[in-house]
Amino acid sequence: MAQLVRVHNFTVSRDGYGAGEGQSFERPFGHAEPADFFAWAGGTASWPNRTAPGGSRGLDDYLTRDFHRNIGAEIMGRNKFGPYRGPWADHDWDGWWGAVPPFHTPVFVMTHYERAPLTLADTTFHFVSGTAAQVLAQALAAAEGKDVRLGGGAATIRQFLDSGLVDTLHVAVAPVELGRGSRLWASPDELSDRYHCDVVPSPSGVVHHLFWRR
Amino acid sequence: MAQLVRVHNFTVSRDGYGAGEGQSFERPFGHAEPADFFAWAGGTASWPNRTAPGGSRGLDDYLTRDFHRNIGAEIMGRNKFGPYRGPWADHDWDGWWGAVPPFHTPVFVMTHYERAPLTLADTTFHFVSGTAAQVLAQALAAAEGKDVRLGGGAATIRQFLDSGLVDTLHVAVAPVELGRGSRLWASPDELSDRYHCDVVPSPSGVVHHLFWRR
After folding, report:
1. pLDDT at site A1
2. Nearest by CB to A56, which of B59, B200, B212?
3. Which of B9, B59, B170 would best serve as a mutation to test chain A binding (most A beta carbons within 10 A)?
């Protein structure tokens, strides 16, 4: 089976923003409240960062747990990896995720600034430049036949969408308005010429949008 | 993580029947039309019996593909395994699924009649008698830490439900009335004292019911 490029559990506001304005160490999502974005996933049994037992096993859980299924590599933008900009030498930053990041595969971080690979537990971050297609070629090779997850943020997903490189997307639309920030779309209808979409409201309040290529 | 007992992709009519009356070799689901029951899953990219490429990758596909995730064994009733009743010596029957059954794990077939194990490709069918709890104990051991899928039919699922042995159920309610046959329930509300349930209508016409323990 062909390798797919998949977006999973990417949450946006009703007005299409994947993060707010003013990202910082203290506010990874800028003026957006992370709880507004991730409560739907955080409440599930399969949430990767869950530390207590329990959690729901309904619709949101089916979607949350697909994050890991048959994934061999992730691609993310530098602004997902951390709040700092510019050359890496200026600081010592190993990502948001602590000593055991929830990826467990190679991760390709798109950046214009060179940096040596960073290994934390079973995740290795590679810092790469180039076009979306060039980075994807590296990730597909590293995934060894499995699929590649496109992790975000919104600008990175847009870049891959605009290059026609995304096969499926799961975007959860949260019941909140942001007004400004990093925007995925003005409306999900922007993708309807190229993708089928199932729109599935969840009892948790988000509306899951499941896209696949026409 | 504890092993779970899971029902997946079990389809019933609006009036709760998992199969019609009069099962036979020619009509595995009795007077029910298999297409009415399985079109929602058969149209997806992940349907195990799919031979052509393509297929949808929306909501129905998320549910269909969960069939295999972290499953180490299956339990089924004899009437799922085949249309014949009584001692096995009377006939030569190796199941509906041909030389490569879609299970790929040990399968425990509940029957009052002894029969030697049957191996087809990477699936081995064990023919076992005993209570639901006794059969489950065997399946949990065979699953080696993974979950156990409870495959049906309706009477087998009822037996396990009535013994309190099922952790999660995915039941798809198809837009068809059967009137008679093998019944799972008169209404999904029968489970609401013991289970949470997300009710999720699909664009394909079925209504997914996702249960997990309270």
Report:
1. 61
2. B212
3. B59
Selecting from B45, B57, B63 the residue whose C-beta is nearest the C-beta of A62 gives: B63
List the CATH number of the domain containing A136.
3.40.430.10
Q: What is the C-alpha separation between B172 and B177, in angstroms, rounded?
A: 14
Q: What is the pTM of this model?
A: 0.92
Note the pLDDT of residue A126: 98
- State the sign of the Cα–Cα–Cα–Cα dihedral B48, B52, B53, B56: negative
Report the gap between the CA of B59 and the closest CA in chain A (Å): 6
End-to-end CA distance of chain A: 18
B138–A contact, CB cutoff 8 A: no
Residue A179: predicted pLDDT = 97
Taking Cα atoms as reference points, which of A144, A127, A60 lies closest to residue A89?
A127
User: Structurally, how many domains does chain A consist of?
Assistant: 1
> Does the distance separating the beta carbons of B59 and A210 come in below 8 Å?
yes
Domain span at residue B113?
Answer: 5-85+99-213
Confidence of residue B51 (pLDDT cuts 50, 70, 90): confident
